[in-house]
Amino acid sequence: MSRVRRILLLITDLQIGGTPTVVRELAIRLHEPGTVEIEVACLASAGPVVDQLRAAGVHVTTLGADSALNVIGATSRLVTLIRQRHYDTVLSFLVHANTVAAIASRFCRRTRFIQSIQTTQPRPRWHWLMQSLAQHAADRIIVPTESTARVAMDRAHVPARKLAVIPNAIDVDSFERSPVPLESPRPYPVGFIGRLDAVKRVPMLVQQLHAMRQTFPATPVHLHIFGEGDQRWPIAAEIERLHLKRDVTMHGAVASPQIALKQIGVLVLPSIAEGFGLVLIEAMAAGVPVVATNVPGIRDVVRHEQTGLLVDPNDTMALAFAVMRVIEDAELRTRLIEAGLREVRERFGWSRVIEQYRAALA
């Protein structure tokens, strides 16, 4: 009789976001009763995705590292967890979890450690220093795009032989087609969905909305912002400064991207860097055209003029003009929607991606 494999997925936190969503889906889809047992641990104490995992029957352990002072205790608890539950493999996600896993590996010699890098953003630089040290403890490093692989080699000095490029994925059939892009409502609903983090540059998006109002007064636009994060107050301040309270709605976090995507006609992602941008393929699956910056990570997912529009991140008006192109050109909108849906089915469905993970974990 073959031995049951026990795999732990370790992540920094389980708040609503792209990487926690990927971890949730991996935990559910990799589980094979009697063959592979999957459990999840996060460094932080709680988060909405904890409840989602437990509702799906996945065992979740929270390690209580809600501050830098608690990291040592969390590392000790992780070592104890690995020993008590006899995991043969630990797959960690993001730099904090990768670092803690690397330290734990010194005390868990019989366990295989694999890491995942999910970002290309250059700062903070100390993250890349920590990752360059942590990567030595990993047998393999999984990244979602070729751009992330290049960044991992350049900034974290990960050997090419260690890298495996496995894209993030979604359940395409769980996304209903949004009716908004085909209805052309006025004002036209433009949306951002994601964590309100500085790298996403949402205040700049608010400024672009102001530019649209000034340059295209005949085409009213309403901006919907879905998400929470430490940039909430700077965004609110920019809305106030530009007198856009009637033209912007800050919805806060939503339980699922489907809720947000049903309300918008264009998804905008103005990030200065992304590892992948899960929301891009979620929008494609929902039939919502995408406008995004032409930066590493995003350009690996979106094909310019085919599945979305990509703009120069340093061009202050490019985003506004691209959004207006989508709003005003129904033929372009339809073409992007149909091509995006084909692309996400062919490249980013779980049926294909889960097999790549199984091979990497074998």
The side-by-side strand order for the widest beta sheet comes to 3-2-1-4-5-6-7
Helix content percent band = 40-55%
Percent strand: 15-25%
Mean pLDDT: 92
The CATH superfamily name of the largest domain is Glycogen Phosphorylase B
CATH architecture of the largest domain: 3-Layer(aba) Sandwich
SSE pattern: EHEHEHEHEHEHEHEHEHEHEHEHEHHH
End-to-end separation in angstroms reads: 18 Å
User: What number of structural domains do the residues give?
Assistant: 2
Radius of gyration over alpha carbons?
A: 21 Å
Which spans of ≥5 residues are poorly predicted at pLDDT below 50?
Answer: none
Overall shape: it is globular
Number of strands: 13
Which sheet architecture does the biggest sheet show? 7 strands, parallel
Task: Provide the CATH topology of the largest domain.
Answer: Rossmann fold
CATH class of the largest domain: Alpha Beta
Structural class: alpha/beta
* Tally of alpha and pi helices: 15
What does it look like?
The strands form two sheets. The chain has a seven-stranded parallel sheet with strand order 3-2-1-4-5-6-7, sandwiched between helices. A six-stranded parallel sheet has the order 10-9-8-11-12-13, sandwiched between helices. Helix content is 42%, strand content 17%. The chain is built from 15 helices and 13 strands. By secondary structure, it is α/β, with parallel strands linked by helices.
